[in-house]
Amino acid sequence: MSLSAPRAASRTAAMALLREAGADRIPHSGRTLLDHLVGTADLLTSWGAPSRVELAGLVHSVYGTGSFGEAPLASADRDRVIAAVGAEAEHLADLFCHMDRPFLEDAVSGLSPLLSRDDWSALPASPQDLEDLTVLVRANQLEQEPHLPSTGGQTSPSRP
């Protein structure tokens, strides 16, 4: 899989930022957070995801999530993340980190806005953001599934 020059440059910048922030030293699903982030981005690339989604996959939990609290970066570092992966990818990563994930399906179906896990306020998510987040959430799950103790290294039959 060959990446375009701008995409490859963004991945290189993001990898440098993630290493500087210590993502290569933070444990995650039996490996490091950096391993998981790269694996998620690689999976998205293999699916033919747009650059914004692939790059969001590379930084999708840098601000922490409801289930993964050890954040290598803070919201105050947004400008650095934007400089590495671009505003669209950072926006998706920010939504991923702050959304109340169980209610993503309700937001996609139009039953409710995308809600913040912090205070249940509505997050600024377009229909395209919701579609992209759905793919990102699935890639995140599939990438870490074989590394979790509860699966014994076995993946369940799933579709991307």
Describe the secondary-structure layout.
Layout: H1 5-20, E1 27-28, E2 31-32, H2 33-46, H3 51-58, H4 78-85, H5 87-98, H6 104-108, H7 127-144
Antiparallel strand pairs: 1-2
Helix pairs in contact: 1-4, 2-3, 2-7, 3-5, 3-7, 4-5
Report on the architecture of this protein.
This protein is mostly helical and 160 residues long. 51% of the residues lie in helices and 2% in strands. A two-stranded antiparallel ribbon has the order 1-2. A hairpin with a 2-residue loop joins β1 and β2 (31-32).
Amount of helix:
40-55%
Largest sheet: 2 strands, antiparallel
Radius of gyration: 15 Å
Mean pLDDT: 89
Please indicate the percent range of residues in DSSP E strands (runs of 2 or more). Answer: under 5%
- Terminal Cα span: 18 Å
Give me the secondary-structure category.
mainly alpha
Poorly predicted ranges (pLDDT <50, ≥5 residues)? 151-160
User: Globular, elongated, flat, extended or rod-shaped: what is the shape?
Assistant: globular
- How are the strands ordered across the major sheet? 1-2
Number of strands: 2
The helix tally amounts to 7
Strand and helix order:
HEEHHHHHH
Describe this protein with a few key phrases:
globular; 51% helix; 7 helices; disordered C terminus; mainly alpha; 160 residues; two-stranded antiparallel sheet
